Amino acid sequence: MTGLSIENISMRFDLPNGGHVQALKDVSLHLNPGELLSVLGPSGCGKTTLLNIVAGFLAPTEGRIVLNGHAVKGPDAERGMVFQQGALFEWMSVRDNVSFGPRMAGRREADYGKEVDHLLDVVGLRDFKEKAIYELSGGMQQRVALARCLANDPDVILMDEPLGALDALTREKMQGLVLKLWKETGKTIVLITHSVEEALLLGERLLVMAPRPGRIHTEYRLPFADMGVGQDLREVKKHPDFGQKREEILGMIWDMEEEIMGRAEEAGA
Amino acid sequence: MIPLLLYVAIFVAAFFIVRLGARKMTERHDFTSLKTVTFGDESAVRPDRWASVISIVTIFLLWGAFTGSKWVPVHAPGPFIGDTQFTYTAEAPDGARDDATVFIRVFEVGADVTEPEIDPGDGFAKNDVITVGAWRSKLLLFDQNDEITRKDGARIVAIDGQPVEPGGEVITDAGRVAVTSKGSLNYEPPKGMQMEPIWLPPPEAVVARVAEIASEGYQNFTLWEHLGWSLYRVVLGFILGAAVGIPLGYAMGLSDWFRGWFDPIVEFMRPVPPLALIPLVIIWAGIGESGKIILLFLAALWIMTIAARAGVSGVNITKVHAAYSLGASRWQILRHVIIPNSLPEIFTGARVAMGVCWGTVVAAELVAAEKGAGMMIMVASRFQLTDIVIMGIILIGVIGYGIDILFRIAERWLVPWKGRS
After folding, report:
1. Which domains can be identified in chain A, with CATH numbers?
2. Among chain A residues, CA nearest to B416
3. DSSP states of A58-70 as a string?
4. pLDDT tier for residue B312 given thresholds of 50, 70 and 90
5. Is the pLDDT of residue A203 over 70?
6. Which of A41, A226, B36, B367 is the right S-S partner for A45, CB 3.0 to 4.6 Å?
7. Contact criterion met (CB < 8 Å) for B343 and A75
């Protein structure tokens, strides 16, 4: 079976004080190739843990991840990651960062050079390719991270709040870029975010997770990502359904937060 | 005390002069110059270059002024040199008193001196003549030529008219005159406020020594050989320490077993000052080259190990995760991520290690060596050759500073991303 399957993932670990944490409980999901999933939830709902399990950085205590028919054992070039920030290599130029994957695979400049230059064009960094990383703004750095991930041609792209550290204007532009790259490349993308708007705009499918234990709360299928490919994202936001969905999900997360607060108060009393 | 007061006075005076006068010449128009809050904003405090220049000039000025340097136009009052005299009054056992004059010629130590001719005078106490070197003192047996000597019961009751007892002293225009407990005189000419060369030689004497030792050598080796040997030991010891310490630090940062095995050793050896190892190293390896290299190796080893370990632990985990997700192998991650990412830490460690090694080599040479900067100043101090000692200290400081600057230049060139991620 093609695509990415998350099969009955549970994760539980001991704490030094003798207690334990049930970070995830029985999470299952299947993504078809080319699907774009955004994951939303209050802090502590295990969304980053889930992403790290899919990436292969953490082992689940139960269940498994299956990608295109084989089980995931650890990190691999087939699953690319885009982090919030700090994941670029400061000692390399922009271009060397982007060509890192192909170079590590032992490919030659003659082989990957055109591809890398094309990706730099796509993310609009053609004139910056010889610059050092620390000379770029935050938005440009995230574009490098996107291009670096794409240069490796992974089957799945995992994004851990990739736009979280950017200012509002840059963030909007980058959301457009993510949608454009998704349509052009046809990659399967899993995107974690804190922003309800971003999750609605970029999620073809949207997963709301609930905390303690981390589990899937509600899943949506949304039309906005497809709409956003063709038109201005600000127009998409004006759509009546968009506002209604935003209020619905905000209310849902709000209730979860209230519940956590209430439980904390009970435990305190 | 007076040099210190003068120093403070110059500090304050220069501050006001520069504030009033020179400020306009060095006016800046950059962003920092527009900050109104500078007290408490460390980034807005920039060294005043005028202050630095005046500070250095002041040190040399005071040094020259209080050592009688020919290079400095103003001098503190020097020791008295020339002819002077004082009078003593002797009393015979029968109560008779007689005055006699002591003629003194104070000469510069090292210069030829002749006693002045004098008239012995009349009475039972005769005039005396003595020669004294500047800064020295002289015992005067005043009764040698007298008709009634101390054996006969003569004793001194006054000097320049001021009454004095045995054990007491009188400050006259000619200098300090003390009467010893046995009744003879001890004379000391006025010393002025300058330092004697055996305590602090003037700058030109130090410079002359540099030229002399650079060409003729001291203790069988020229200056450059002494300094070169010290540097050679430091560089060799440091390279060996880094060659072992850096891989060890990486291993400790990358493997549980290495971390567990070497942690107690490194944590124990880190606080042991290298100087405390000198006796053991001398027992084991003698005072030759190998002992010193071993000592410097040990001095650099722990610092470089800890720096490399800190470099590995300082790698942002997202960089390592990113590299794995891009398909890099462990070896590629070490080569392309961990090593470059730890370079800033390693450079910081290397600067510290070179500083410690340089201090340790000088100390080790002070204890025992046939050649080297530390040995040179130690031997010179035994012979009171203060100019060589001061020259050695200055050169050791200059070389240590030079090493640090070289490292800083290399750092800017090799790890330009330091502090900017």
Report:
1. 4-78+154-268 (3.40.50.300), 86-153 (no CATH)
2. A91
3. S--SEEEEEETTE
4. very high
5. yes
6. A41
7. no
Dist. CA A224–CA A230, nearest whole Å: 10
CA distance B418 to chain A (A): 9
Nearest residue to A184 (alpha-carbon basis) of A224, A153, A159: A153
pLDDT of res. B26:
60
Closest B-chain CA to A135: B420
Peptide bond into A213 cis (omega under 30): yes
* Residue A220 and residue A204 in contact, taking contact as beta carbons nearer than 8 Å: no
Q: Give chain B's domains with CATH numbers.
A: 2-65 (no CATH), 82-188 (no CATH), 204-414 (1.10.3720.10)
CA angle B156-B159-B163, nearest 5°?
75
- Is pLDDT of B384 > 70? yes
Q: A124-140, pLDDT tens digit by residue?
A: 888 888 888 888 888 88
Query: What is the Cα–Cα distance from A111 to A74, expressed in whole angstroms?
Result: 27
Name every residue in B having a CB less than 8 A away from some CB of A. Answer: 316, 318-319, 321-329, 332, 336-337, 340-341, 343, 415-417, 420-421
pLDDT at B421 (0 to 100): 60
B7-52 pLDDT per residue, tens:
999 999 998 888 887 666 666 777 877 777 878 887 778 888 888 9
Alpha-carbon dihedral angle through residues B10, B12, B13, B15, given to the nearest 10 degrees: 110
- Mean per-residue pLDDT of chain B: 88
Among candidates B324, B326, B417 on the partner chain, residue whose Cβ is nearest the Cβ of A91: B417
